[in-house]
Sequence to fold (214 residues):
Amino acid sequence: MMKPMKSLTFREIYKKIVYIEDKNSVNVLNKGYQIEIDGDETGILGYGYVDGEQGICFNVFSIVKVEDGNVVKYNDKPMELKINHRVRLEDVYNLNGFEVEYESLNLERYVDRAIEINEKFFESEEKEAIRYNRQIDELRHYLYPDDIQGYVYHKEKNKIEGLWVRTIAMLPTGILAKVITPVSREFNIALEDELEFKLFNIDGTLRLMYIIED
Fold:
């Protein structure tokens, strides 16, 4: 079902085939990569992955035409030629699209290319484990899913402050993450500090916190 790209969840994007109603990319592939088109194409099929610097991106596999929510024509030349045309989620945030169901288009023909993209952008087993942790999905930055919202809490001063951290690894008792936004000096935490944050359920809301005891 067609809906705004900004409403798609991380689970509907990461390592999934997504239709994006992106005529600009169709024109780029046509004029920049000399891929022939008929002119009635409505968008692209992109494979969702995470680039450590660019956030969520899509590698274009096919140029397609969609009618009534169904792909009725596709051109797999971008995939067949292994063209690495990247579309950032940030750039198509306000367009429409949908996750393409695996069974609907015999998507097995995309498997080998998807594996290549996975291998190219693989960072670590630790990072993959965090990306597959559904528990923290609600805390993720929409465009940069390796970054999650957290809090630091100073017990003695009874002060709490929000910040963003970049996840590194799952630990037996929490998540190791690097501080990427500044906090007040009284917390004595600097940018790039690596700290172990723990998950707490506070009044029904999940929060990732680093607690300073003294």
The first strand starts at residue 3 and ends at 4.
